[in-house]
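As a warm-up, study this chain.
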Amino acid sequence: MTYKSLLDRLAALDTNTVSDALDFLGLPGATVGLRPLWNCPKIVGRASTVLLAPKTDNVSTVHLITPVVEQIDSDDRVLVIAGGIEGISCWGDILANAAVGKKVRGTVIDGFSRDIDGSESIGYPVYGRGVTMISARNRVVQIDAAVTINMAGVDVSENDYVIADTCGTVFVPTAYIEKVVDLGERIARRQDGMVEAVRSGRSVAEVMHDTQFEAIHVEHA
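Now compare it with the structure written out below.
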């Protein structure tokens, strides 16, 4: 199966369902705190990872993240940025405009963004810990890219799958994406059936009994 079709199937799910699928498989991936920084659309894509760190010298350097944006040559990318400093920006509207020009699908930061109105004005999705007005210049530098990084306690590697919506952000390792999508679709069907059962008048205690969820394990096996 091509990764494009997997992206389409992943996009048909939501973060709640993908988180449940990871739980069933005993895998990490769901994060807490990486939420939309404006009322932005869901994003689904593959990670281009960036690692930042505090700047410790006075040497002039290229602005963080710009080399990664310049090298993007496909339309499936989500920028995934770790190493942000509390209250200091590691994303802004100039970068957002550059990302739009490269057809990047969105940005997830384990950190803060400034100029969030600028990203919103061009419809560019940004997820992260919060917003600030304090510039990264002379405070934060990029130290690596296309490497495994830690996002809110979850290890994320280059090309891993990303889904982010109103509830937050979930990462899926490339090696498990087919299993996660298959199981996510099964969970979504069962939960849709449970909603219909409650609406039809069945006891919610019966419908939501643990045995109903355990049945997903049986189906998966």
